[in-house]
Amino acid sequence: MHKLLTSIALGVLIISCNGNGNTEKKAFELDFTNVKGQYKPGETFPLTVLNPENKQIDSIVYYLNDEKIGSVKGNTKMDIVLKEGQLGAKSIKALVYAEGSNTEATGQVEVVSPVKAKMLSFDIVNTYPHDTNSYTQGLEFYKDTLIEGTGQYQKSVLRKNDYKTGKAYKEITLDGKYFGEGVTVFNNKIYQLTWRENTGFVYNAGNLNKVKDFTYFKQIEGWGLTHDDKNLYQSDGSITIYKLDPETLNEVSSVNVYAENRKVEELNELEWVDGKIYANVYQTNTIVVIDPATGYVEGLLDLTSLSEKITRTPQTDVLNGIAYNPKTKTFFVTGKLWDKMFEIRIK
């Protein structure tokens, strides 16, 4: 495992046969003797139950994430097949029928990515000035204009930039009660998130006039935002990326993001490029390249060398901001309150 992965907030589930942390002795418990903590999609593991009181078991029905997956007579071994689907924790339940009653035994395994992430490299193409007052949250090209959304209470703005000079030629300020977050441009409309206010905004991409406000589909934080040719994709600081309908802003589906056997949390600014999602990992100099259909991290890019080329002040914050220019096929990256923006070509 490359050292970069140690900079990503990660964890492995602790397996508990009781599931709820209760250590009291139960009539039946899942037998995890031959079960690993982590599995990849398509792998199989065996299950039986421990029967310390030697009760007469009639049958056992097994569930994975509350979906029935099969049953056995007596305490015959059940092979659990982990199909392709959402990565992450999978709850296991055995409903044991014995001596006229039924008892539940529960536990968990974790499904992780089967893909080995590749280490990517880059060349610097150009270096441009960046406004040191811009606490960059969202960055995206719209035609030849660089759209930037910034954060912090009382200071959040949405602006159109001349990327070569770092100057804004059009800018609107958010109400001071909002902390601006990710932005994306879809069908000539700019979508902008806010951090903890559970509110987003839609603007006319030409004149920045607000079209409407919207409420998130559930109570989550707003972090990053991007889109493909049909849907929006939103991050909330967790391992999850949500696919959204751009009209209703309701959730269509979601994926959990894993780099091999490690979950990747604090996914921040997002950018869609050639069918993949590029994401800043907050508090690191890492960009991860994600398959949006599976959540598998396919690539890792270390931009530490860029953070060493900026002029630091006590206010300078972390790397954040990814914009892809399809005309030049280059990426523009910067950070919160950085004095420079870098045009890079990823190899």
What does this structure look like?
With 347 residues, this protein is mainly β. The chain folds into 2 domains: 3-111, Sandwich (Immunoglobulin-like); 118-346, TolB, C-terminal domain (Neuraminidase). The protein is built from 1 helix and 32 strands. The strands form 9 sheets. Strands 2-9-8-5-6 form a 5-stranded mixed beta sheet, with no helix packed on it. A hairpin with a 6-residue loop joins strand 22 (240-244) and strand 23. The chain is elongated, with a radius of gyration of 24 Å. The model is unreliable at 1-23 (pLDDT under 50).
Number of domains: 2
Distance between the termini: 21 Å
State the major sheet: 5 strands, mixed
Helix content: under 10%
CATH-assigned homologous superfamily of the largest domain = TolB, C-terminal domain
Task: State the CATH topology of the largest domain.
Answer: Neuraminidase
Structural class, by secondary structure, is mainly beta
Shape: elongated
- What is the tally of helical segments? 1
Using only C-alpha atoms, the radius of gyration works out to 24 Å
* CATH architecture annotation name of the largest domain: 6 Propeller
Number of strands: 32
**Residue-averaged pLDDT, rounded?**
92
Low-confidence stretches: 1-23
Tell me the name of the CATH class of the largest domain: Mainly Beta
Proportion of residues in β-strands: over 45%
How are the strands of the biggest sheet laid out side by side? 2-9-8-5-6
